[in-house]
Every structure is written in structure tokens, then in C-alpha cells.
Amino acid sequence: MKVLIIEDDPLHRSYLHEAVRAALPECDTVLEAENGHAGEVQARQSRAEHVVMDLQMSERNGIEAARTIWRERPDTKILFWSNYSDEAYVRGVARIVPEGATYGYVLKSTSDERLKLALRGVFIESQCVIDREVRGIQQKSLGTAHGLSDAEYEILVDVALGLTDKAIAQRKKLSLRSVQNRLQQLYEKLDVYEGPGNGPEGWYNLRMRAVAVALLRKVLNASALERGERELRSARGN
Amino acid sequence: MKVLIIEDDPLHRSYLHEAVRAALPECDTVLEAENGHAGEVQARQSRAEHVVMDLQMSERNGIEAARTIWRERPDTKILFWSNYSDEAYVRGVARIVPEGATYGYVLKSTSDERLKLALRGVFIESQCVIDREVRGIQQKSLGTAHGLSDAEYEILVDVALGLTDKAIAQRKKLSLRSVQNRLQQLYEKLDVYEGPGNGPEGWYNLRMRAVAVALLRKVLNASALERGERELRSARGN
DNA sequence: TCTTGTCTTGCGGGAACCCGCAAATTTTCC
DNA sequence: GGAAAATTTGCGGGTTCCCGCAAGACAAGA
Questions:
Q1: Distance between CA B100 and CA B44 in Å, rounded?
Q2: B166 CB and strand D closer than 7 A
Q3: N or C: which end of chain B has fewer CB within 10 A?
Q4: Low-confidence residues of chain A, pLDDT below 50?
């Protein structure tokens, strides 16, 4: 059994190495890669079926890497080990998990014990192991209370990238008014219409404020923006 | 001699502890705190004059913590040890360094050797030790080429928080038109006016696009936004 | 003092945004 | 199949944004 570790921080990498050794005596080879790009290459060459990786790496982040790994071998088992449970990450992961794949998502702040259980759970028992806290975010992002639908989320990204309503309409093949409708839904869900007695009415630029709130609540983050920007650029010839 | 370590990742914390022990034999006490808030308290109680800390911690980030520490004892020597050299962080640090204080800024990716040199340089020799790469960002942010002036940067934050032109004018005690002028300067400096043959003219909402570009270039980041939001809320009664 | 340069302010207009209203369309569910 | 619910679309108008133009305000320097 082979395990591939993709993690850019050397300290964390060696800690993971240790943990894998300890939790998985049946593992005979541990490989390491120090960024998403190297990770993809390693995965391809070594045919490793077990990967544990960080999200948020420079060069190429975990979500990108995981997507290409899964595209090449959808039965790869991946354990995500991240510092954050930003909704943007959780949503990003959920978006790329192939049908029926087994994966896990644990935070770096969890105990040794829990990490080892997750390693065994995902790699040996083929369970999906999602940290409690991450699970919480998943729920919230689905529960229509605060949660944005996928449609709304995509609009949010387009807006955040700075596209005009017209441009979005064109991109999404919708009428202008429909885009604006979606925007209004966003404004409500993100609760952009001023707090209580916060000064005069027209204090906020709703469009901008919605993005600001999304960023503050971690519904969006820099990495989601980068992904969006890349897609945008590749959508045309650029 | 006492050294206080403020860092939320336990792995990095113990690594730092080790490094301090090795680099500073004259240090007899090493204290640890696991977030900005605890760090402030520790600094106050222990009267430590030497602090090494991470930026970007949950709970309360390094810049906030450093500011209150410096406010209470401006002669404290602080070494920032961070994963990133985002312009937003560099600018944030520069903004709070008191007159004549000695500090350092090194990246977590630097070698053991360099870290130890920085520790000795800042704590013993009272030098300012700034990593090469961080220095580069500093230069760029000053060189008027791409660099935003402080005035422009502040406007950028206000816009990113979602304030309207009118609101900003009021906040900054300027006329509406002046605010819009500053905005236009921003638009030029951030190079928001479409790339080459990128589709029709009105593709971007300039206001939003400027913020997106700033985020992508790390001129702004989530932590800067949070700081801005907090200031905004405290500016009124809220 | 007069010039030169930078910054601020006012005015005006075209474009984009925000949104209520209502009809047309699609989806959902019994 | 048909009714109810949700989405999409067009229209119209009030507001904000974006910005060219030009007249003051202020500072530095010949």
C-alpha cells in the first residue's frame, strides 16, 4: 500500500509522514510532494491510490490538484487536511468529489488520535470521514436558511470578479433582469440591507457590500476568486 | 532575558521554541501563547520585551496584537514570522510600527539558519531584519509605479467594505467628486480598464473589479477587510 | 509676484444598477 | 393531465456610479 502526502509546509509534512507510519502499518511506501502541481505528477507516476493533502498551497491549491487526480483515477481515496473550514473550501471540495468516491476532511487542529482514525477510516475502511466542524459548515451551506444555492453562489463569484450584470447575463445565458433577480436574492440572504439604526439608508453599495459580507463570512475566499478568475480567462481565448 | 512566542499552530510553536532555545542561549524563559488575545495578556503580565509572533491567527490576528503590545510598551522588540508576504500584511505591519521601534519580518519558508540570525539580529543587536522577499513587497508598495498611496489605499478599503461614494465622502470629510477622483486614480493604478481584445467595452463593473484585482494581487486580503470592518463598526456607536 | 503643479470641488450627462409590477414560462407535485 | 409554485422575462423609473470639463485652493519655486 502506497500513500502520497501533498503538503507545502515541511513541518506539517513530516508530522503527517509520522502519523501515516504510525496509523497504517500496512503502508509500505510514503511519498511526498510539496505543492499541488508536484502532487499531480507524483500521483500519476506512482499510481498511488491513497492521498492525504492540504488545501491552500501556493503554486496550485489542493482543490485543483484533487480535481485532476480524481479525473484520472476516480477511485483514489483522498483525505483533505486543512487549517480552515471556510465555506468556500467546503463547497469547493464538494463540487469536485466524483460520484461514489471516498474522501475525508479533517482540520489541522484535531488531535493526533482523530487524524489517525481518519486515516484508517478513509484508506482502510473506505468510510467518508468529515470533521464535526466541517460537517457543520456543510449543513449550513445546504440549509436554505443562510445557505446560498449553487445558482446564487455562481452569480456571487461572477459579481465578485467584477463583471457587469450584462456580462453575467451573457455568460450565464440569462436575461438581464434574471441576473438582477438572483442578485436581489443574494442581497437578502447575505442580509445586506443595513443593520438596525446604522445611519442613513443609502449607506451601502449593495453589490459591493454583498461581496464584502461573503468574504467576511468566508463564504468566498481568495482561492475561490482565483479559481473564478482562471475560469473566466479560459472561457474566452485569453 | 524573556521571550514570548505567539503562534496558534502547535507544531510551529514548538519549532519556534526550539529555535529560540538554540539561537539565544542568554534567554532564560520562553513563554507561549496560542492566539493574539492570549498573547497580549501574556505580554502585559510577563513584561516580556522580546516577542516572536505569527500574523494570521484566528481569534485575533498578529497585527492587532502587535499594535496593543506596542501601544503599551513601544520599545518591545517583535519578530513577525509569517507564511505570507501579502502586500496587505506588509502594509498592515508598517502602519503600526512605532517611531524607532526595532522589529523583523521573516517568512516561515526561510531556513533555520536565517530564522536564528533574525532572532539574534532583532533581539540582541537591535537591528531591523526584513526578509528579502518581504522587502521586495515593501519597495513595490512604495514605488509609485503600481503602488497605492495611503490615501488611495484607505479609499480602497472603504470601497471594498461596500460603502457608497457618499458615505465615504462623509467619513473622509471630502466632497463627493473628490472621492470619485480618488477612485479613478485607483482604477488606473489597478489597471482595471479591460485587457487587450477582451470583448466589449462595458465588461467590468469598475468599482467591483478594482477590489477583485486588489484581492487577486494580495494588495487586500481578508484580514485587512476584517480590520476595516471593525473600525467601521466602532466609528459609529455600533 | 507670477508661474507651475497638485488637489479639491461643482456641474452635467450617459450608463449601469436596484427594484416594483405583471405577464409568460418552466418546474413541481398531486 | 392540471393546478400550484417557482423562475424567467420585459418595462419603467429612481438612484448611484463613472467621468469630461473647468473653475477655485494651496504649496513650492523662479
A1: 21
A2: yes
A3: C
A4: 196, 238
